[in-house]
Amino acid sequence: MTSLLLLALVPIAILIALGTWLRQSGFLQESFWPQAEKLGYYVLLPALFFHSLATAELGDVPVRKMMLTLVLSILVVAALLIVLRPLFKLDGPAFTSLFQGGVRFNNYVGVSAAAGLFGAQGIALAALANAAIVPTVNVLCVLVLARYGSAGRLSLLAVAGQLVRNPLLVACVLGMAAQAMELRIPGGIEPVLKALGQASLPLGLLCVGAALNLSAAAGWIRPIGLSSVAKFLILPLITLGFCHLFGLQGEAAIAAILFQALPTASSSYILARHLGGDAPLMAGIIAAQTLIAAVALPVMVITLTPWL
């Protein structure tokens, strides 16, 4: 397991490092990166999730156990962060960034690592994990931003609008619906979706590297530390507990731990900027957690796997 995980993480690290170099060297124009992120978020990654869920062979996957484990562990950590909020001594917008850092996850790193560990089955497990986590964290983060963000409290209609327009959420819902109804993707469309999905991973990891800005992390040691403890320690441990509670074992359990120990998503910055969060702090958390994950992710997965 140790060697497999490290081998799966090596190409991820190289692509992230390459993205950092491409951004800092100016090899590509600065305007490229926002457009690449937009392409990945609205087109490539949704294509990957829809295709993976619609075509996944889930016969041997404990779907219910895995989804319950992932969703309930996130809800527990979210509730814990909200209850402890007064102790953090942060203003509302800063708390929303800490909250996102504690519960959101980087899809690109997770899917790439799962594929490297388990091949095609890893893609199916990753798609299932996304189907459980994406709706959960998006609902929670939008609600927290609506409550504590500087933009003021959003109406229920505005919150619903944010969720309905989320491309990852829509792709997961459509993919699960196609899977449930046993619909087959037309022959001329399926290869297109597959190709778009495959393109999402290297491009997404390059964008993760390009978004790294360590100078943005220097001034926020405390909130970065708190969000990282929640993300890399508390959430995986609680997930391990739910794995035992529901009897989740094998590759599905390892994938669950893997996805709960991922760094926060770069899309957190976009949400913070548009819904009144502390966007500079969010950028610092993203940069710091991406680097911390290089050590924390393999340590947590390797340490907790024998206990599954």
Automatic annotation (TrEMBL):
Q: Which InterPro entries match?
A: Mem_transp_PIN-like (IPR004776), Na+/solute_symporter_sf (IPR038770)
Which residues span the membrane? 39-56, 68-88, 123-145, 157-181, 201-221, 228-247, 253-272, 284-307
Bilayer topology reads: Multi-pass membrane protein
Keyword Nuclease attributed: no
Which top-level group of life is the source organism from? Answer: Bacteria
Q: Where in the cell is it found?
A: Cell membrane
Q: Which GO terms describe its biological process?
A: transmembrane transport
Q: Which Pfam families match?
A: Mem_trans
Keyword Cytoplasm recorded: no
Sorted alphabetically, the keyword list is: Cell membrane, Membrane, Transmembrane, Transmembrane helix, Transport
* Any Gene Ontology CC annotation: plasma membrane
Q: Where this protein primarily resides, as one coarse class?
A: membrane
Q: Which family does it belong to?
A: Belongs to the auxin efflux carrier (TC 2.A.69) family.
**Protein name, entry field:** AEC family transporter
Source organism per UniProt: Halopseudomonas laoshanensis
